[in-house]
């Protein structure tokens, strides 16, 4: 197991390097931060731009800049934002928990909805309930996430004035972003739970469990669900990347002070240090989650644990 | 399932109860909430050109001069000034008895410190210095008198002194606390003083009871950073924001339809148009250019596509601009005449004409679609080609690789036509890829060192008239600065440049 | 016939039971009864309704969508006689696992992989006996000892995947018997097991029935097992009971034509004594028209030992790495095949027999190039695989065809069977003209006993036997010289199995085909093969002609294997001392190589490993 983790960590570091290298290079193709910073200026000369580029350090060759970024990574010094010179580490320290908390609640919402629905659909396969749930998840799949977010805001914030339309201000403000994200995830998760559940319900040991005299609830939620957990966890792990991707959009709509907002503003301002660091941290998160999934596997599936 | 419904209901009840409390709290005690599209990251005046900074900074800091909402200059921290030595020296008398928020006195020392910093090592790292390179040095004459020595006459300098970079900063505070601390804990002489700042979330200010001008009528002022305008409007509708700046045209009806809200607008500095490729193709012909301008009904576009929140322009400047000539009228909409001119110039019906624009600007995109439709009626086939922003700004326009027409938009914050015209029309300028007009160059160069305001204005008007006559561009409209405002506010005066001073605003009880 | 419902001492009485799925009646007007201490066998082929009957008793059939159209199931429960069909699911739960327990066919999938053995046994005791977990686990150990699992204390904490199939089935029995049920339903409990393990399980069930005084309903398709276990027998066909008799009478004096044909189709071990060659036997078929006999008796003397061998396998070694250390080095290997040598002659059927882990399938897969070997040579028509180019190896895939156990899994469900049969003709470029290909497909379908029109249908429209015929047609399409039949008959009903055996033999006669026949079924092997290799842990323990191996089994393993086969004759019950040992695993630590067996020739061509 230890060897496996070391191997995965090395893979993870390599993957992160590739991702950040690509992103760092790509963003430098899209425009000059000096130009962005001086957009509102009246008269700006090439000399002024050169002066700002030098101050930002973007006049040096790309690889020099990239290696400096890597060196900073090792010492946990991510540099300073081009926008106002705030420490990037500080920005990420502020933003990462917001995003993770939102991701957590979204996952939770999605799990809370999709597991009972998925199981219900599987148990009542091809019956009315199943059809309704499947239609629901199909509708969920075809929602553009920002549209759903806007609808929720219209209803809950503007019409009824129950929930704050944006920002991270108290526990109520968590409801709409995590529900939006949760519903989007639920659409696919319901189908996944249904499919894996159907497969599991066909297994002989489910019949055996019933033959023991166990209640249907125990059969479904103890014997079946635990077996579904393995494919579900794999999928949820894979989904985490997509979840973070979705959160970028959701964060913007709900003005959530997380990594998505950070990255979004950074792209707009060509704020290389912030963008590089956010991408790096996000890809590390994805890799870590997938590593965690591999470990959790073992905990859930004794066939792996007892190897 | 039943359980689920019950839980939902319980959450909803809790939500109602606690929201009631939360709302009443945010409304109490005269707290004003304003949205800002982007967190500038630093509140140091010399670090930024972002309008986001301007909106906030103008309520924390003051400059020597101040520009009102009609773009007229007024005394700020300087009570009066004199232009001396043929424009290379300006003497300022400073306002006495003014204190920074930290209690530090404002005096000649502070002015000198501010400009030494701006023009020195610290300023070199930021973008703002570019605007003040005509200042050679600041000399302290006495505690409340300073002389600005210029390298050359700069007619726009007094306006620029109302700009971000020239905001006066506290010398002792910065020296003691350091630059980084100042970035996140700004101290100025303005009507509001700093309370707290959470990056990417908000900045909280409180009224400065010792302000030298009108003391603020609200006790607290909060700026919230909301990049998505849709979200900001939702917050406005929910009553959690009082002012939203830069309301997009597409959202006007939403705000207008809300009984609690108002749309308030004023002439803004931003102008939009389509520039001609005067070097190649059919648009090298002045008559063709005029025909194209005449083919487009600009006033209808403003009425129907921009909800009237724009003004027609004849030259590439807004009505607030120095050099604006109310007498100069745009070419009339006259498709018949346009057709005649085109025929005379030998342009065959169905000739393709390419219009290059920046992608991702829905309103302007619609406008260009309309322009294309008008051109169709005079027999030109418009092909609209959107480019990614940076490609357009770096590779297409400056390299002279545009089609016959290309987007030209300009937000001259100095509101001085020189700042626009020189960069757009002088030979060899980045935004002038095609034109080489010696006469125009001469006019542009001539006005620059002039200290005689009236004479310079006359010359600028002449330039505008010349450009209009040459039909170097199709001026479309000057977009108004549009604000969405809660009706509970009193005394809100829209500013053309986002720099709304909020000390005059009060909340109706 | 006995009138079951009048039996007052019966534990359970099924009266006029009719079960339907939708509009289709799968069980109709079925009646039988079981007393305490009695074993009733329900025998029938696929579609007979025997499994639905057992699931109906437990009322599990309605969870899967069955409807009870009529009848009663009267059970003598602790609360007195109850009609199980009238109980709610809630009430049934008190009976399931407590008073009526069930063992299922697939021990590999009957246990929940994510819970320990202990948890799964304790669950029943906690539920029905109100035991605390600790107490239940202690009882679990006792139960595991009862089913003669050595090392019960350690097994209780293990997970299903750590146990062999035989051990799992014993765990299932322990679990079923946890609450000392009055009635045990065993649905094909040994079908998936190796014969020696089957013999162990049957012995355990027999002993426990006596000691616990249970009634047993034993559902099976295997007449040998029936003869071994049953007191009374109910024969079912297409949802109906066709016959009910005590076990001796069923075998000695079957009344119904169907029972007679069923018994005649069962290959009987030892039936071929005294024969040198395999024999094609006429098959009795029972259908709507009644019973009739198909085909003729013919001695299958097709093997040509004068010719050079078609396939020669020399010192073949196949191993797989199963465990690795963290440096990626293997620590454990499956020694699937260890230096095996054998020849297959033109027209010959060579059978590979052995139990799980013997390596018999691996040999077939290696010859078909589905598996890499670590050492040794395989020669086809005189040319070594190692010396063949890519093209030649491809051509070889045409000459050697493989038929699997599960015909459904080996056919593409979205393609017509005609398309599937034509596929090898196209890939190997045997024919190009579309019309000729279609003609060839029709011929092939006709040859395997189907009609040309079947080619336009899809696999799900066929029965298991028909699908296996389709697979054979597909194998024939590329005009092979060798067909590897890997447990190709195991999933088929006996009557169908007999027909397919004849088809194999007819094709061999016509085309001079060679077969490598891989099977665990000794009786079938006895009938079909010219020579037999008995494999044990990847090595040959005995090799010789069919007659040599079956009439003079010399190696003790061969003897055990033959002794464990249940004979379809209630007078010949297995009385061998039951070997409690499990089949050893072919997995070994790296460096711990198995000892190589040496062989002696006890008669010409009859090789036996030294012990």
From TrEMBL, chain A:
| ABC transmembrane type-1 domain boundaries | 96-297
User: Which keywords fit this entry according to its UniProt record?
Assistant: Cell membrane, Membrane, Transmembrane, Transmembrane helix, Transport
Which locations, inside or outside the cell, does it occupy? Cell membrane
In terms of SUPFAM superfamilies, this protein maps to: MetI-like
Q: What is its main location?
A: membrane
Q: Does the keyword Methyltransferase apply?
A: no
Residue ranges spanning the membrane: these are 100-123, 135-160, 172-192, 232-254, 274-300
Q: Name one GO cellular component term.
A: plasma membrane
InterPro entries per the UniProt record, alphabetical? BPD_transp_1_N, MetI-like, MetI-like_sf
- Keyword check for Transport, yes or no: yes
Signal peptide positions are none
Q: How does it sit in the membrane?
A: Multi-pass membrane protein
Q: Name the Gene Ontology biological process terms.
A: transmembrane transport
The entry assigns this protein to a family as follows:
Belongs to the binding-protein-dependent transport system permease family.
What is this protein called in UniProt? Answer: Peptide/nickel transport system permease protein
Task: Give the classification, highest ranks.
Answer: Bacteria, Pseudomonadati, Pseudomonadota, Alphaproteobacteria, Hyphomicrobiales
TrEMBL record, chain B:
Q: Which Gene3D superfamilies match?
A: Dipeptide-binding Protein, Domain 1, Dipeptide-binding Protein, Domain 3, Periplasmic binding protein-like II
- Signal peptide range equals 1-22
Keywords for this protein: Signal
**Where is this protein primarily located?**
periplasm
Q: Which domain of life is it from?
A: Bacteria
Subcellular location as annotated:
Periplasm
Q: Name one GO biological process term.
A: peptide transport
What's the protein here called? Peptide/nickel transport system substrate-binding protein
The source organism is Cohaesibacter marisflavi
UniProtKB/TrEMBL annotation, chain C:
- EC number(s) per entry: 7.4.2.10
Q: What InterPro entries does the entry give?
A: AAA+_ATPase, ABC_transp_ATP-bind, ABC_transporter-like_ATP-bd, ABC_transporter-like_CS, Oligopep_ABC_C, P-loop_NTPase
Q: GO MF annotations for this entry?
A: ATP binding; ATP hydrolysis activity
The keyword Chloroplast is assigned to this record? no
* A GO CC term attached to the entry: plasma membrane
| SMART domains for this protein | AAA
Boundaries of each ABC transporter domain copy? 12-263, 311-562
Which reaction(s) are listed as its catalytic activity?
glutathione(out) + ATP + H2O = glutathione(in) + ADP + phosphate + H(+)
- Per the UniProt record, one Pfam family is oligo_HPY
Where is this chain primarily localised? membrane
Stored SUPFAM superfamilies: P-loop containing nucleoside triphosphate hydrolases
The record's subcellular location field reads:
Cell inner membrane
Q: How does it sit in the membrane?
A: Peripheral membrane protein
Q: Mind listing the UniProt keywords for this protein, alphabetically?
A: ATP-binding, Cell inner membrane, Cell membrane, Hydrolase, Membrane, Nucleotide-binding, Repeat, Translocase, Transport
GO-annotated biological processes:
peptide transport; transmembrane transport
Q: How does it assemble?
A: The complex is composed of two ATP-binding proteins (GsiA), two transmembrane proteins (GsiC and GsiD) and a solute-binding protein (GsiB).
What is the documented function of this protein? Part of the ABC transporter complex GsiABCD involved in glutathione import. Responsible for energy coupling to the transport system.
Q: Which NCBIfam families does the entry link to?
A: PRK10419.1 (NF007739), PRK11308.1 (NF008453)
The similarity annotation says: Belongs to the ABC transporter superfamily. Glutathione importer (TC 3.A.1.5.11) family.
> What protein name is recorded for this chain?
Glutathione import ATP-binding protein GsiA
| Source organism of the structure | Cohaesibacter marisflavi
From the broadest rank down, the organism's phylogenetic lineage runs:
Bacteria, Pseudomonadati, Pseudomonadota, Alphaproteobacteria, Hyphomicrobiales
